[in-house]
Each structure stands twice: as structure tokens, then as C-alpha cells.
Amino acid sequence: MSATFLGTPPFPRAAAQALADTQLRHNLAHATTTIRAKRAAVVAEVDRWEELRLAGAAVKEAALLDLDTHLLRLEEQLQARGAVVHWARDAAEACAVVADVARAHGADEVVKVKSMATQEIGLNEALAAEGIAAWETDLAELIVQLGGDLPSHILVPAIHRNRAEVREIFRRSMAEVGRPAPDDLTDEPAALAAAAREHLREKFLRATVAVSGANFVVAETGTLVVVESEGNGRMCLTLPEVLVSVVGIEKVVPTFADLDPLLRLLPRSSTGERMNPYTSTWTGVTPGDGPQEVHVVLLDNGRTRALADQVGRQALRCIRCSACLNVCPVYSRTGGHAYGSAYPGPIGAILNPLMRGTGDPQTDSLPYASSLCGACFEVCPVRIDIPEVLVHLRSRVVDAHRGDAVPSAEALALRGAAAVLSDARRLGALERLSGRAGRLLERYGGRRLPGGRRGLGRLPGPGAAAWTGARDLPSPPPESFRAWWRRTGRHETSGSGT
Predict the structure, then answer these.
(1) Domains located in the chain, CATH noted
(2) Which of 6, 183, 289, 295 is deepest in the core (most CB within 10 A)?
(3) Does the pLDDT value for residue 498 go beyond 50?
(4) pLDDT in tens, 227-246
């Protein structure tokens, strides 16, 4: 079983470690560039893509604004169709439900469809503590699990691995948990996929309990929807006798018709396909067809906290396509592990603080893991304004530390700036002092910057050194605007009508 993200360091420290891994950066650059190109090609085929984005956003927003009504209707429809509904306030309650169902059927193993919700709650580790093995059946998730690794991408959890690394993982680890990899296994993608298929087949045929998530849940019919590209999900959803689906409460949509824009947006934004190869829907229990016992765990785990945030609640519109990760200049250089969560990238930088709350150094660092370039909003299929939410969350982090007994270096610097900028005499004195410093630097010292100007080197002090170590700091201008204004006599020629 893989480790968890518990105890991971704040983003700046974790990112610095990731940036030192050149192989990681190469793997990420290759994969994200490929996915971006595929997405752009299929999006360009849609004449009114922006209208489709607006329709998808409207469906999700309408569902969130009346979420309590839709959830109660969903519960009613699921129960009417033979499913057992469980409400889970947090990760512990959700994991306990799955473990109880598995024990009730004497199962010491379950097969799993790829699910962000189960990663979020640490289900695999919770089941392992109960003596129940949870086998990932998605190819990328299998790679992560066999490698004792952590997922680093919403869509492609093993994006940080290249195929040579995957071959070694299969050869080293498959035999320990089931059918071994072939002795002559190569790193060709088809050979790796075939080895995974043979390894998983015996698990599919043996398992009595399966666990899934859901991409969408329809309130009016009680229908759950899973989209995937490999067919492993279809195997999990049809072969075992018992199915447990762990679903975030934000996945509900009011009507079956509401799936239309979402099922057109998701594949284009995620895998760069016009439609997913496998779209599975199931509604409760169907006698003689598929699982004969179905449990649905409706998971909160901080979602109502996020819903209460009027600016941040738009993050709950997320359909987990990962398009924002693939265009993010920060993610493409650091990878997903640096975010310390099942949800990496721009969406993780807002989802995690919204659902967990502020106060933890690791979570508080995430809203700053962005350049605010806006690329994530441009590609989001449901128009989540991630930069807006990032700035909002940064303000919350700052507000939470306003009463600290020992203010941060940043807070002290801003207080000093406020004191100077709020008084014209202080500002004038600082301008004169900085002008003298600027003239000295231009003449005698400083560091040569692009364009021929000179700048300051790394400033002393932990905060200042970190800030100037990552960016050029131009030297102060030799003459302030007000000094230039007085020198040129512009104040004498200006008038009320100019």
C-alpha cells in the first residue's frame, strides 16, 4: 500500500525539492505538453465552446445553490431502487462504512475504480489497517500503488513516471501481490498494458466487493455515472456481488438532461477525446444484472464548509478534468506531490484550504502556489475563476495572522510601507534617500540587469534574502517623479483644464 500525504511540508519547501529532480521535470513537461495539444485540437472542433462552458457552469451552480433539496431527492430515488444510502460527515465515517460492508461479506480484499474521493479520505490505508487489501485497477493508479508511491495528477496519477520506470516497478512488485510480470517484459506501452491486464484479471474474477466513486449523480433518477478510458471501471461495476460507491455531495446534478453539457465538456478537457470510451451508469440494484447489493456513501468531509464561502464555493463546480494542471506553469515544474494532497495543481490550491480550513502551515501555503497568470480559468470547462479564489484565500490567511504576538517579516514590511505612504513628508524623505542610493549604485556598484541597468544583489535577512534570491531587484531611480516634476517646471504649466 502507498503512503499518505500526512506530514508533508509546506509547498515552498516541497516545491524546492521537486525542482531539483530533472527527470521529474522532463516527465511532466512531456506529458502535459502532449495532453494540452490533444485538448486544444478537440476543443477547436466545437463551434460554440464558450457557450458549452457557460452551460456546464450553470448546471453545476444551480445544483449547488439548492444542494440540500437535490440530495434528499437523490436519497429517496436511490432507496426506491434498492440501494443503501449512508451519510458520511468526514473521512473516518466514510472509511468505516466501506470496511463494515467488506467485513459483512467476509471479504479481505476489494477492487477499486479510480476515485479521487477515496484518495481524499485515505481509504486504501484505512482498509489496510482493518486487514482488507484494496487493489487499484486503473493502470496509472496500479503503477502508483505497486511503486509504493503517491499520485501526482488528477487524471494521470503516474504522470511523474516514464515507461522505463514503470517497467521496473512491474518487474519488481507485481509478483509480491499477484500474477508476476513476464520475464521478457519491455517498456513498450502495449506490453506494459498487457502485463497489467493479466495481473488484474484474476483480481476482477475473484473479488466479491468493489469500490467506486462517481463523476456525476442524477438526483431525479438516482443514477450514478462513471466515465473512463480503460474498461477496468466497467469490470468493477459489473462483476462483483457488492458495490460501494463513495461520492462527494457536490457531484449531484438535478436531472438526467443536465448530464448533456458535462459529458461533452469532460472528455475534451481531460483526455482530449470527443467522448469517453466507457460511460457506465447504474441505478440501484437490477435483479440478475450486476451487483446485487449497492451502497452509496454521500461524503461531506469539508464540502459544506466550502459551500458556505460565497467566493470559494465555485470550486465545488469542479468536474476533476485536470485541465488546469496541464496549463499551470507552477504545476508543470513541481509536479503534484509538492501540494501535499490528493488534489494537486491550481484546483488543489483552492479546494484543500476551502475544505480543510486555514491554520495549518501546509494548507496555508497552497494559495500562494500560483503566479496568478489566469491560464487555469481560461481552460476550466465549468469556468471556475481560480485566480479570484486564490486571492480570496490569501486574504484569509493574512487575516488569520493579524493578531499574532510576533508579526511576520512581511507584516512588518507592510506596516512600514503603510507608515511611509500615508504621510507625504515621510514619503518625500524616503524618495530623497533612495535617490541618493540609486545614484551611488548606478555609478559604483550593483548587479548588471537586462537592459543595462544595475540592481541590488540579495538583501540580508531570511525574508528579504528569499524574496531577492528569486527575482531581480532594480536599484532605486536616481530621481523621483516629484523631483523631476519640480526640476522641469511642469507644476507651473499645469492647469485645471489639462
Answers:
(1) 11-305 (3.40.50.10420), 424-489 (no CATH)
(2) 295
(3) no
(4) 999 999 999 999 999 999 99
